[in-house]
Structure to design on (203 residues):
């Protein structure tokens, strides 16, 4: 999603950061600040779908995350729940942005049914915990894509479409805040409206 957004001309004014334990995934990301996390836990490899390992890996990099968030007023966090780094790491990030008193939107996807019950269960637990610690959570059900595309759509193409949907949602929220002068809502008013409201949406 970050790679997709960074390549979008209309989103060039945004600042992007990408965190992962798998250092190979951090390659070839022009215009993106890449932060490898949890090297002591994963040795530069992926979390293997383990949310516990993802949480420990991201938790070990909190000082670096705080530095990344310095001088930031609003954060839009994107993650694909059901996988280790997102399901575990997003809990650390949600607590951190709350401690730093930042306005944060969380855009997360839920796994396709074809990804299996195990990944779905991990995602649902992660989403429940995220909602308890976050102001604004938008959960996108990937399976709903199949209501608008052909049933024989290739899996890789479906994943690409899910990425585009999420990227468009993130850009839309960012543009809404950027154009706040058009609606006479300043950032302080937006913060007061949304902070601690427990706004959750699933679609």
């Amino acid at each position: 999603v970050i790679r997709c957004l960074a390549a979008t001309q209309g989103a060039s004014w945004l600042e992007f950061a990408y965190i992962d334990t798998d250092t190979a995934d951090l390659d070839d990301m022009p215009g993106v600040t890449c932060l490898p996390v949890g090297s002591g836990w994963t040795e530069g490899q992926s979390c293997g779908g383990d949310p516990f390992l993802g949480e420990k890996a991201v938790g070990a990099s909190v000082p670096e995350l705080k530095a990344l968030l310095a001088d930031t007023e609003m954060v839009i966090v994107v993650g694909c729940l059901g996988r280790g780094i997102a399901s575990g790491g997003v809990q650390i990030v949600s607590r951190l942005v709350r401690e730093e008193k930042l306005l944060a939107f969380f855009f997360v996807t839920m796994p396709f049914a074809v990804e299996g019950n195990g990944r779905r269960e991990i995602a649902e637990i992660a989403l429940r915990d995220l909602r308890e610690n976050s102001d604004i959570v938008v959960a996108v059900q990937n399976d709903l894509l199949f209501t608008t595309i052909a049933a024989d759509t290739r899996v890789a193409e479906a994943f690409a479409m899910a990425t585009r949907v999420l990227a468009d949602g993130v850009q839309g929220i960012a543009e809404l805040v950027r154009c706040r002068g058009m609606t006479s809502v300043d950032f302080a008013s937006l913060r007061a409206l949304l902070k601690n409201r427990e706004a959750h949406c699933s679609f």
Notes: Helices lie at 2-6, 39-42, 51-59, 62-68, 84-99, 117-133, 155-178, 187-194. Residues 28 and 102 are 29 Å apart (CA to CA). The first helix runs from residue 2 to 6.
